Amino acid sequence: MLAIIIPYYKLVYFEETLQSLASQIDKRFKVYIGDDASPEPPLALLEKYKGQFDFVYHRFEANLGGTSLTQQWERCITLSANQEWLMILGDDDYLDIEVVASWHKNYDTFNTKSSVVRFATKIVNQKSGKISEAYLQPKREKATDSYFRKLKGLTRSSLSEYVFSKESFLSKGFSNYPLAWHSDDKAWIDFSENKPIYSINEAIVFVRISSSSITGKLDNEDVKNGVSIQFLKDLILKKSKAFEKAQLIELLLEYERAIKKSRKLNLKEWLFLMPFYLKYFKLTSFLKYCRRFLISIFNL
């Protein structure tokens, strides 16, 4: 069975989330709601949906998401029982009626062959009221290729549209980045365990962008950029072998760009990059790196 984990904090859009779960045409799932000491407990709303689908509600006495969102995800996961597959659904996102049914329909195709499954998505822009066209994905794709397409602006990705095996989560865990920014990107590379991500394009997860969501907020850009720098460095250090040569060189450039959004690279950062440009040597890229390095250090 599938466990749908909801780290709950905001009430404003939560009924749409619950209604989408109650409307699933296949009820072979169980929901675990972890209330992060919210000032808006959803008890009255949950009473309304009692009996419409199987759920467990637990209120944590101390707020954790304010300091570590990934640790809040993880303690919500501990609420789940013996389900082997997990989805972490945002409390402002929602599913079309066939998400669970399509997951079971495709189960025999991806089980044992993939540890990460994703659904097609549409973006709900709360400010404009518009819903995007569907983002469809390759049926099977390396996790590194998927992230690289996102990096190049060719697709999008966020937490709610993914289902992952509990075994892979227990083995790897989430990277505890501030705001959980890029924690999901890193998870899919880690959790996939060199197996392809399997995509289900016939069902849609609706991902909401609003002023109350981390993605929609504009007052945390410095924090996000600092996390991006660390995330890219982690990929370069720990996952470089998983990327194609051209992709790795692009990651090195993106690491530079992320730092340059706020300041110049220091000598230590330039020297960090050098062994990778040598190991994944491409003459043009290496010469351009040397030129940027010399200009930056010696102000040529």
UniProtKB/TrEMBL annotation:
Its EC number is 2.4.-.-. Keywords: Glycosyltransferase, Transferase. GO terms for molecular function: glycosyltransferase activity. It comes from the Bacteria. The keyword Acetylation does not apply. InterPro entries: Glyco_trans_2-like (IPR001173), Nucleotide-diphossugar_trans (IPR029044). Transmembrane segments: none annotated. This is Glycosyltransferase family 2 protein. The lineage of its organism: Bacteria, Pseudomonadati, Bacteroidota, Flavobacteriia, Flavobacteriales.
